[in-house]
Amino acid sequence: MCAQAAVNQQEISFAPLFERLRQTFATGRTRELSWRLDQLERLHLLLVEQEKALLEALHADSGKPEIEGYIGEISFVKEEIRYVRKRLHKWVRPERTATPLVLQPGRSVIRREPYGCTMIIGAWNYPVHLTLGPLVAAISAGNCTLVKPSEIAPNSSRILAELLPRYLDAEATVVVEGGVPETTALLALDWDLILYTGNGNVARIVMEAAAKHLTPVILELGGKSPCIVDETADLDTAARRIAWGKFFNAGQTCIAPDYLLVHETRKEALIEKLRATIRTFFGEDPKRSPDYGRIINERHYHRLMGLIEADRDKVVTGGEGEEETRYIAPTILADVAADAPVMQEEIFGPILPVLPITDLDAAIRFVVDRPKPLALYLFSEEEANQEKVLSRTSSGAACVNAVMYHAANPNLPFGGVGSSGMGAYHGRHGFEAFSHRKAVLERSSAIDPSFLYPPYTDRVKRWLKRLL
User: Fold this and answer.
1) 204-241 pLDDT, tens per residue?
2) Strands (E), 230-326
3) Both 253 and 217 in a single domain?
4) Would you state the pLDDT for residue 396?
5) CATH value at residue 108
6) pLDDT at 10
7) Segment (H or E) for 327
8) φ, ψ of residue 461 in degrees (nearest 5)
9) What is the mean pLDDT of residues 392-397?
10) Residue 2 has pLDDT above 90, yes or no
């Protein structure tokens, strides 16, 4: 198996593969700190030595610009590895905690232990980042892991299947390529933990399969992440940051601002600044820009163009598409109705609807009346407004006067709430997510009060009731 680039369903059934992972975990070697650090170092080496091959695969899948592939995929995982390796020796130590007086003499600790055999189901929009990022967490906690890259990004899936067994312990980390049949077969196995990144419909299938084995899940989903711009916002800064976040990776980012709620007195000015910013970023013809990506496949291309066509009269910039190259121009829709098609689903593309609001309360009502998003963004210079939005809305994460930056901070948990997901990872949060926290209480054998044991006299009962 060590020389095997990937495991294919036609070559080997998944039950024997799963059993091999179980046997590897039973040896105990993945629990050793030295093994974890070595595997993380090797994963970092993979990213350094194979950077060119990975960037080429990313570009082949979605036309991802080289710099976006580096910033959003490779550099992100490299930094995560550096952060974790530097601190892991502290995280694995047993954590001393208090012991109540009635349990003295005693010592209480929390020990982190790996779950065992885990599965990571990656996503197509960031096929390196959203596959290897969770793998960093799984390795740091000492697990054996099966990696299932997204078949929608076939070139990235193939290169990961080739490289991971070459660099990592191939008895502890394996790759399975494939689509729905392979994933369905894998989900039937009794995993100790499953992490899935993708959409809510598939997440329900994953959760249903996991429930049969009472397997815990981490679900990294999405949703319509709102961006509120109030009357105090710095529009120049807001336009640059919103346009960057929305059109990075051609809008195919789970935490991209999905739509704008803009104070009615600032709407026209912000739209003009957004249009100017798009020209500054990508030139008069974004199709010719080396810094602008493409849509992942024809199905998503036609879905997105359908959303534009449904509100063609609302287009104030962009709106053009080219089916052959799956290009869709950065597009802004003004004065979109709340019941418009573009407002009924996560856009996941370079389309930015703008909805005017009368005041901040109206924006908050709009947000809380809808499913909880993965992220929420607010542009405001008024501290009271910032606190109002943060305290009255619920989202997986939030940024004030920024978009998407929270995902780059390994000190912050990354995850959703409600329909945008459950569980979180990144940094120590990933280590904790892939670890079971085992409570351990140790007592001395020298002191063993007899009143704790039957038979209980009336006097002992009264005394115990006062004590406890």
Assistant:
1) 999 999 999 999 999 999 999 999 999 999 999 999 99
2) 259-263, 315-317, 321-322
3) no
4) 98
5) 3.40.605.10
6) 45
7) strand 327-328
8) -60, -45
9) 98
10) no
- 250 — alpha (psi -120 to 50), left (phi > 0) or beta? left
3-state SS class at 338: coil
* CATH code, domain carrying 363: 3.40.309.10
* Domain membership of residue 431 as a residue range: 14-221+419-440
In the block, tokens 């580096």 appear at 70
Residues 277 and 210 in one domain: no
Dump pLDDT digits (tens) for 363-372.
999 999 999 9
Give the total number of structural domains in the chain.
2
Beta carbons of 130 and 196 less than 8 angstroms apart: no
Asked if residue 201 belongs to a domain, the reply is yes
Burial (Cβ within 10 Å: 0-12, 13-18, ≥19) of residue 405: middle
Which is nearest to 422 in space by CA: 135, 203, 107? Answer: 203
Q: What is the number of H-type helices and E-type strands within the chain?
A: 16, 20
Catalytic machinery residues:
220, 254
Whether residues 170 and 273 fall in one domain: no
Can you tell me the mean pLDDT for 335-339? 97
- Do 195 and 425 touch, CB atoms closer than 8 A? yes
Chain mean position to CA 463: 53
Q: Indicate if the pLDDT at residue 325 is higher than 50.
A: yes
Spatial CA neighbour of 228 closest among 379, 361, 350: 379
Residues 366, 338: Cα–Cα separation, whole Å: 9
What is the DSSP code string of 27-45?
A: T-GGGSHHHHHHHHHHHHH
For residue 385 the two structure tokens come to 């407004």
Instruction: Convert the pLDDT of each residue in 167-182 to its tens digit.
Output: 999 999 999 999 999 9
> Quick check: is 56 in a domain?
yes
Residue 362 lies in a domain: yes
Q: What are the backbone angles phi and psi of residue 257, rounded to the nearest 5°?
A: -60, 125
Do 318 and 329 contact (CB within 8 A), yes or no? yes
Query: Mean pLDDT over residues 282-292, rounded?
Result: 97
Q: CA-CA distance, 120 to 78, in Å (whole number)?
A: 18
Residue type, 287: K
Least confident segment among 1-5, 54-58, 269-273, 435-439: 1-5
Cite the DSSP H helix spans in 143-258: 154-167, 180-187, 200-211, 235-247
Inter-axis angle of helices 33-49 and 154-167, to 10 degrees? 130
Average pLDDT over the chain, rounded to an integer: 96
One-character DSSP codes across 81-119? HHHHHHHHHHHTS-EEE---GGG-SEEEEEEEEE-SEEE
Task: Please state, for a pLDDT cut of 70, what percent of the chain lies above it.
Answer: 97
Q: Two tokens at 61?
A: 């899948």
Looking at the fold, whether 363 and 431 belong to one and the same domain comes out as: no
